């Protein structure tokens, strides 16, 4: 006599041999087919998303942009003018003043102009500090930006945050800049500038 029970396990008792066998129930063909269809659907969706990303990347134009700015120092006080901008999270990040090189400008002229616009300080170029370049994506464009930095000496003007892109401006002692500046590349440029100023003293 067979005593039947419900899935997932079916236990068959053989009275004659007094032996019990436990047989694992096999999945039905309909449930297996359903899982296979689900797997194929997920694969198609994943392939479609990857294809869309590749097509979007292929459509992006690559653009080169050039900016200039630098470290403007009041050599009488040993302070530098820096700017604070708010990021997307509302955090105030301090950096060196800089901006786009306009048509017909040299990078040195652009650096002097941008420092004046963003800090209110008039300056003169002392020496080149070096360049920083990086990539980012904006409005379906892959942008390769190069920023030329200079050591500048303050010659006039008054500290001002009149530029709409600037949240705050400040005179900061050179020794305090590594702790104030948000970006490691700019901190390294400040170290280079500090060495230059010490050598020329």
Describe the fold and architecture.
This protein has 201 residues and is of the alpha+beta class. The protein folds into two domains: 9-59; 61-200, Nucleoside Triphosphate Pyrophosphohydrolase (Alpha-Beta Complex), CATH 3.90.79.10. It has helices at 29-59, 107-119, 177-180, 184-200, and strands at residues 9-14, 19-24, 61-74, 79-86, 92-95, 98-100, 121-138, 141-157, 168-173. Strands 3, 4, 5, 6, 7, 8 and 9 form a seven-stranded mixed sheet that branches. It has a two-stranded antiparallel ribbon with strand order 1-2. A hairpin with a 4-residue loop joins strand 1 and strand 2.
Write a concise synopsis of the structure shown.
The chain is an alpha+beta fold and 201 residues long. The chain has helices spanning 29-59, 107-119, 177-180, 184-200, and strands at residues 9-14, 19-24, 61-74, 79-86, 92-95, 98-100, 121-138, 141-157, 168-173.
Within CATH, the superfamily of the largest domain carries the name: Nucleoside Triphosphate Pyrophosphohydrolase
Q: Helical percent range?
A: 25-40%
Strand content: 35-45%
Q: Can you summarize the main beta sheet?
A: 7 strands, mixed
Shape: globular
Number of strands: 9
Mean pLDDT: 82
Helix-strand string: EEHEEEEHEEEHH
Total DSSP helices? 4
Tell me the radius of gyration.
Answer: 33 Å
Query: Which stretches of 5+ consecutive residues score pLDDT under 50?
Result: 1-28
**At CATH's second level, what is the architecture of the largest domain?**
Alpha-Beta Complex
Level-1 CATH class name of the largest domain: Alpha Beta
CATH fold title of the largest domain: Nucleoside Triphosphate Pyrophosphohydrolase
